[in-house]
Write a structure and sequence with these properties.
Blueprint: E1 10-13, E2 17-23, E3 26-31, H1 37-52, E4 62-63, E5 71-75, E6 80-81, H2 82-88, H3 93-110, H4 123-132, H5 138-150, E7 156-158, E8 167-170, E9 173-176, E10 183-185, H6 187-200, H7 207-227, H8 232-246, H9 255-268
Antiparallel strand pairs: 1-2, 2-3, 3-5, 4-5, 6-8, 7-10, 8-9
Bound molecules: adenosine-5'-triphosphate (ATP) and magnesium ion.
Pfam families: APH
Keywords: Transferase
Protein name: Aminoglycoside phosphotransferase family protein
């Protein structure tokens, strides 16, 4: 994606889209060509579903294309992402991470038992597909998928990409954005995903930042566990399959550390190892 000139004043950009201010309190999110129609439709539909469930978010208002680029119209949120907010307020990072964990737990509860009229995919199905199309050996895939089948389905609203760049700090409080990877499933799987995004996701990965990342992941996890019904054991159970599924489409740094974490989780769960003896 290499655009940045748009029809309206520029607001911000993510990896796959750019936001423009179209006036009257609205923002137009224009997507890059690599984003599928299905992803765009899901993002818009789930944002509406999440809003209806009471999750603090910007629910899509409509769709609008510009010069062949597909777009969604959202209410414009004031403020910045948590990532930018923490950069400006580093001493308040712990407080922000605690609130972020609480919001994630509240989001899981808000969507419980409401599949959004068929809008939401099954998280277990998504993980199964990602493992099956990922780079692990056939033998490891088979055992991992059989293990995944023994885990409970769950019926929480899972975000799938709940990281510092997808929560905004606004005058109305924290708001969750970017629902393109949402599904319905077990909340522990979503919490594990966030823990891994914090530790091994896109962004700087020098050693000081890595220390901060590991600390932040621990803080988020503690806050999440303190405000949800999910246990640390359940997060441990989901870790190997969530991490293995992430191997399919991971474009982030810290790969050796991530692989060590994945391998440890695979061994502990009895699924196997990436490096068979
Ligand atoms: N409703 C909104 N109002 C104002 N700014 C927004 C809004 N939604 C998103 N933004 C800003 O635009 C940036 C990109 O948005 P978003 O995360 O939805 O895009 P993306 O390209 O899908 O992201 P990613 O990099 O996670 O793939 C956000 O980080 C945020 O700064
Ligand atoms: Mg984003």
């Amino acid at each position: 994606m290499n655009y940045s000139t748009g029809p309206y004043p520029f607001i911000a950009r993510g990896a796959s889209a750019e936001l423009f201010d179209i006036g009257e309190g609205r923002a137009l999110k224009l997507f890059g060509d690599s984003v599928s129609d299905e992803m765009i439709a899901r993002e818009a539909e789930v944002s509406i579903h999440a809003g209806a469930c009471g999750v603090p978010t910007a629910a899509a208002i409509g769709q609008q294309a510009w010069e062949g680029r597909r777009g969604i119209i959202y209410p414009r949120l004031e403020g910045s992402t948590l990532m930018d907010w923490i950069r400006r307020n580093p001493m308040r990072a712990g407080w922000a991470l605690d609130r972020m964990g609480e919001i994630q737990a509240a989001m899981h509860r808000a969507g419980e038992g409401r599949a959004g009229g068929g809008t939401l995919r099954s998280l277990k199905q998504v993980l199964t597909t990602d493992i099956a199309y990922g780079p692990a050996s056939d033998a490891l895939q088979r055992v991992a998928i059989a293990y995944l089948e023994t885990l409970p389905d769950g019926d929480a609203l899972t975000h799938g990409d709940f990281h510092l760049g997808n929560v905004m700090m606004t005058p109305q409080g924290m708001m969750v954005i970017d629902w393109s990877k949402a599904a319905t499933g077990h909340p522990a799987a979503d919490a594990v995903r966030s823990e891994m995004l914090m530790r091994f996701g896109i962004g700087p990965s020098d050693w000081v930042t890595n220390l901060w990342r590991d600390w932040a992941a621990g803080r988020l996890r503690k806050s999440y566990l303190g405000s949800s019904e999910v246990t640390a054991q359940e997060m441990d159970q989901w870790r190997p399959v969530v991490a293995l599924a992430w191997l399919r489409a991971r474009d982030a740094g810290r790969t050796p550390a991530f692989i060590r974490c994945l391998d440890k989780a695979l061994r502990r769960s009895g699924i196997g190892s990436l490096r068979p003896a």
